[in-house]
């Protein structure tokens, strides 16, 4: 039996820079426009509930044998749809949700690899989101994690989050075992977010002229040496993504689900690994320009909304062998969905950008989604 843990609650707002202009309409975020960029500092509470009648974090996969690690927790993967609130009280104002996966990735301590999208519903941040991709050593008093991209007001965002456990209740064994067995583990994390958002004043569309890019450690080093004199370029990409979940030509396979996936309309926790063709026209027989490889998983209790973590791997022309990394949530019934491009390789080294998805065709077994990407990169 571990006593409930309460850590002191510090206020962690950074002092607002005096010269900047602020345009805040919510109490939990401060936005300072410095002219060349916008720095947003946010503070809110994240409620992760594993037990009870309404858990917000549900196991979707785990190791075959619990003997593989102390406590059998290693490898356990949870899908979450966790409320974010203004205050520590769960009944305080709801400002958004953190959706996605976290999994235990450390053998001897609590170390969670987190693949999450934080979507907001309050004030000017409504419909904006950011993506976090980081390890969370959850027993440390302060954890710093990486924010890799965003949408809406957080387009092209980079930043970091500091998480502190506000309250933790592990009523059976230690916290790790408590999460696996029937004991309750409820965590409220306090987060301070400092996002760096570059403002885009003009968009130039410049197509890279170079031939296929040279790879290898030496070539990459050379490439970085020239980076200070390289210009930012903006490339637009347009293609169709074909997803087939059953039958002939299946490209997406279910790999995990939760014990409520089959009984909830949003199929919460159901996760697919896919290798989907990308074509230049909606017709699957049109020219293939690459593949979308990765996974998507149902990450919302409210609507069909999927965490998407994938690579676009291009196979044609000057983009042959280059990739773009994509992370966000996709509410598939919305007409237009915005998600973030958080990195790339080859001609897309250091890329950041935005992808918009629109459904061209959808039935029970397959979909064709039109993607428009706008990417900033340097090659
Ligand atoms: C799902 O699993 C959790 C934990 O293993 C359990 O507490 C819960 O009762 C299960 N829910 C259903 C609907 O079976
Ligand atoms: C793409 O690159 C691969 C590996 O270098 C090569 O085998 C292939 O022919 C190239 N494809 C096109 C269309 O250029
Ligand atoms: C969905 O559409 C695809 C492509 O037109 C078709 O092959 C498939 O049979 C359809 N599935 C259902 C359940 O209608």
UniProtKB/TrEMBL annotation:
**What keywords would UniProt list here?**
Apoplast, Secreted, Signal
Q: Where in the cell is it found?
A: Secreted, Extracellular space, Apoplast
GO-annotated cellular components: apoplast
Stretch forming the signal peptide:
1-20
What GO biological process, any one, is recorded here? phenylpropanoid biosynthetic process
Q: Which Pfam families match?
A: Dirigent (PF03018)
- Identify the Gene3D superfamilies for this entry: Allene oxide cyclase-like (2.40.480.10)
Family membership noted in the UniProt record: Belongs to the plant dirigent protein family.
Write out the function statement from the record: Dirigent proteins impart stereoselectivity on the phenoxy radical-coupling reaction, yielding optically active lignans from two molecules of coniferyl alcohol in the biosynthesis of lignans, flavonolignans, and alkaloids and thus plays a central role in plant secondary metabolism.
Could you describe the subunit structure of this protein? Homodimer.
Query: What is this protein identified as?
Result: Dirigent protein
Q: Which organism encodes this protein? A: Centaurea solstitialis (yellow star-thistle)
What are the leading ranks of the lineage?
Answer: Eukaryota, Viridiplantae, Streptophyta, Embryophyta, Tracheophyta
